[in-house]
Amino acid sequence: MDLVVPSDDLVAAWRDAHAEWGPGFHEDGFGLTADDDVESAQGFSDWVERLRDDVECTYRWIMEGERVLGGVALRHDSHEFSARLGHIGYGVRPSERGRGVASWAVREVLTLASYMGMPRVTAVCEVENAASIATLARVGGEQVGRLGSAVRFRIPVP
Questions:
Q1: What is the CATH number of the domain that holds 58?
Q2: Which regions of the chain are under pLDDT 50?
Q3: Which of 27, 48, 52, 152 qualifies as a FRET site for 36, CA 20 to 30 Å off?
Q4: Whole-angstrom Cα distance, residue 114 to residue 57?
Q5: What 3-state class would DSSP assign to 48?
Q6: What is the pLDDT of residue 9?
Q7: What pLDDT score does 95 carry?
Q8: What is the number of structural domains in the chain?
Q9: What is the pLDDT, as a whole number, of residue 52?
Q10: Does residue 53 lie within any of the structural domains?
Q11: Separation of alpha carbons 61 and 45, rounded Å
Q12: What is this structure's pTM?
């Protein structure tokens, strides 16, 4: 597996992963918003450019060969959502879940966080998301709070 910078060259592989999730912009880790048009060539290119130019968040796609397995985002401390949503957001396409892809990607992103001088990161997930809770615990996360339906983890950066 590799973490790669989002690229127009990966449009077919990304669309294959996107189709597996179904309609909408709910794939965590990809930075999709309701305003993004990922169906047209120009819209996809604009979205990729926005991700690459974002100085407050580092986006990477989780690749295995020519296949997009998921996405991961590392929000920097200055990012407006880092306090509420945490520093790390990730998603793995349904057919690839349960084989350690998310744990691998989070560990790789912790390396990026280390290069940025971040001593720790936070991650937030829904309290009923047992798979994400297990992933965050597996990478050294410690549950530090709960607010409504969300649980918050602190993860030390190696």
A1: 3.40.630.30
A2: none
A3: 152
A4: 14
A5: helix
A6: 96
A7: 94
A8: 1
A9: 96
A10: yes
A11: 15
A12: 0.91
pLDDT of residue 158: 87
Q: Is-contact 38 32, C-beta < 8 A?
A: yes
**Domain span at residue 105?**
2-118
User: How is residue 20 written in tokens?
Assistant: 């597996």
The 3-state secondary structure of 69-116 reads EEEEEEECCCCCCHHHHECEEEEECHHHCCCCHHHHHHHHHHHHHHHC
31 within a domain of the structure (yes/no) = yes
pLDDT of residue 33: 84
- Planar angle of CA 141, 26, 47, nearest 5 degrees: 105
- Reading the block at residue 62, the tokens are 């989780």
From the list 144, 108, 140, 97, the residue with the least C-alpha distance to 125 is 144
Q: Compute the distance between CA of residue 44 and CA of residue 8 in angstroms, rounded to an integer.
A: 7
Whether 91 maps to a domain, the answer reads yes
